[in-house]
Amino acid sequence: MITQGKSKRTKTGAIYRKHRKKKKHQMGREKLYVRIGEEKKKVIKTRGGNKKIRILSTKKANVIDKKTNKYITVEIKSVVGNPADSHFVRRNIITKGAIIETEKGRAVVTSRPSQHGTVNAVLIE
Question: What are the C-alpha distances in Å from 123 to residues 16, 21, 106?
Fold first, then answer.
């Protein structure tokens, strides 16, 4: 089980003694990588009865043009660069900070697509 609880060890390397088992509110999830393709979304239940929309694949991005200060929905052609992992470029995986090629030009992704459910970006050129 993936958890987001306290570390098992202290700074010096000593082991913390557990005082209870893992709780459901400490539960974590595996990473989902957003790819370029037909739009697929997944709804996940979160704490407090809320919902989080995760996007699995998409071919559209909301791009803002700083000159006109307007959002345009454009089609994503490919991933040009990704500071998170160089292999993500080859696999066309979109993460925050990735540089994508669109119809309007290159753009940097500003949202976290797997968390927010959309790809928001800012034009570079």
Answer: 48, 48, 6
Answer whether residue 38 is part of any domain.
yes
Each residue's pLDDT tens digit, 65-80: 989 999 999 999 999 9
For residue 4, the tally of other CB atoms under 10 A from its CB is: 9
In the chain, what is the greatest distance between 2 CA atoms, to the nearest angstrom? 58
- For residue 118, give the CATH number of its domain: 3.10.290.70
SS3 assignment, position 26: helix
**pLDDT tens digit sequence for 87-125:** 999 999 999 999 999 999 999 999 999 888 999 999 997
What's the pTM? Answer: 0.82
In the block, residue with structure tokens 């037909």: 38
**CA-wise closest residue to 103 among 61, 48, 66, 43:** 61
Domain assignment of residue 42, given as a range: 34-123
User: Residue-wise over 97-106: b if at least 16 C-beta within 10 A, else e?
Assistant: ebbbebeeeb
